[in-house]
Specification:
By secondary structure, the chain is an alpha+beta fold. The protein contains ten helices and six strands, in the order ααααααβααββαβββα. The strands form two sheets. Strands 2-3-1-6 form a four-stranded antiparallel β-sheet, with helices on both faces. A two-stranded antiparallel ribbon has the order 4-5.
Length: 291
Amino acid sequence: LLVAPIRFHHKPAEAPEEIVGLVECVALGNDVAELFLSGGLSAAASERCFASMKEMMGLEQAEAEKLLRDIHKQTLEMKRLFDLPTGGLGNPDEILASANEALTTISLQTTQEASQLEMEKMKLIDEANTDPLTGVANRRRFNDYVKETFTECTSKGKPLSVLFLDTDHFKKFNDTYGHAVGDLVLVELGKVLGGAIGERGLVSRYGGEEFAGVLPGVERRDAAKRAEELRGKISEATVKSDEGEVLHITASIGVATQADGLFPSPDALVKAADQGVYAAKASGRPDAMAA
């Protein structure tokens, strides 16, 4: 009964069941002693002591502080009675004030670390969902978003429109002016699309020179109108070649809208918008790139 509590006081969970209570008393006494002897200045000792009192005795902060004051008082009385070499024990209020300050520091550090971790996590998620060249969403994010909004809009009886955009003559940009200029075209398209759709939906680079826009709550007529407005804005956008030549951009856009259960799945909706691009190209597209 004397040796076992000392043997297991650093690992009470490993103590024999019949002496767990004694082991916890010794363990908690050790934590309280470290708190007192550090004067409350040790953040680790303060945190460990209050955590032990909470875990072993179910005491909240205020109750724990009251008990610590009583322990401090009785320790001083035992010291006088038995002439014990307990070392210098400071004022209990000052010790607890220091301990609380140390705990506050730990709490702030923990909060800051958690916030930093959350920011890093969100950054990684954002990077995983973003096209590195254009800064708009990538295809993976597009697929997830379409599925989410399709389910939500269909369940609420709201329309959902998808725009598919294909850059006209993109191969000519690359072949004639180089891939660097082709990249400028894609970046400019991302900016125009982002400005047109903004936070009302999602803009993504679907792949290569293809872009897609998702417009929750937008009916087909409005979606077609926005597509035409977008096509006009794209035709006004320009990039410059390495020689300073001003190059115009054009694009073909397909539109599909989920309404009244027209499409059975998100994939069917996306496929319809993609097919709309081919219909737009078949109806004719500008041939000139240079001003």
